[in-house]
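Incident log, structure service

09:12 report received: a user says their structure output differs between two submissions of the same chain.
09:20 pulled the input from the user's history:
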Amino acid sequence: MEKPDIHSSVLAELAPNGTLRAGINLSNFLLVTGKAANGDPIGVSPDIAAEIARRLAVPVAYLCYPDPGTLADGAELDAWDIGNIGAEPQRAETIAFSAAYCEIACTYLVPAGSKIRSVEDIDQPGIRIAATGRTAYGLWLENNIRHAEIVQTDTIDSAFDVFVEQGLDALAGLHPRLIQDVGRLPGARILDGQFSAVQQAIGTPRRNTAAAAWLFDVVEELKASGFVAELIAKHGVVGLRVAPPA
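09:34 re-ran on a clean worker, output below:
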């Protein structure tokens, strides 16, 4: 590979052993849409990681995680060099994030007959919300919901099951996933608008100060050049939008 024109400290932080180790969250079905014959993930997130490795002129190794929480834990374990994950304040304690390269709207699904009409009606005493724990939107709810009760589960599927089985008032989630879920519940509705938008970003352990600054600039260039938009179109992802400039 051609030697990259970047500072040696960036290479030393991101590929100290000659390979970029990229943490990939498999549970985000918008960003990981398939699997290659060799087992590597396919989608917007892996392609972003591959482009960063190309710019570093090193190979990429994908480290796949079943959920964003376990991926985030890897920042303190030296498990990966970059992690493709939603940026949230709790995670920022150990991870230095770029600005978002794409956003995913988050809202609520309510059951048939619900008197809840808007996102603003949710945070009331007595309201119970099903949500997937340690997701970016789940962390947002922990930080911002003051009166309603959050019932957390381990997976997106189990959040739906608990919402139905326990008769909860709302199911929090990514808007594209809720579009799938609403078809399974006659009379259910997705509330207009959003309570948040997952800020999908590139993270690196906080000690990597030179790499963090370089990644920030790279992500802004990838958005401005149309590269991210092209990836979204390439993989046919609906519900994913390019984030605005930082």
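09:41 both user submissions now match this output. Likely a transient worker issue. Closing.
09:42 reviewer note: The helical segments are 8-14, 44-56, 68-73, 136-144, 156-165, 175-182, 209-224, 227-234. The longest strand covers residues 196-205.
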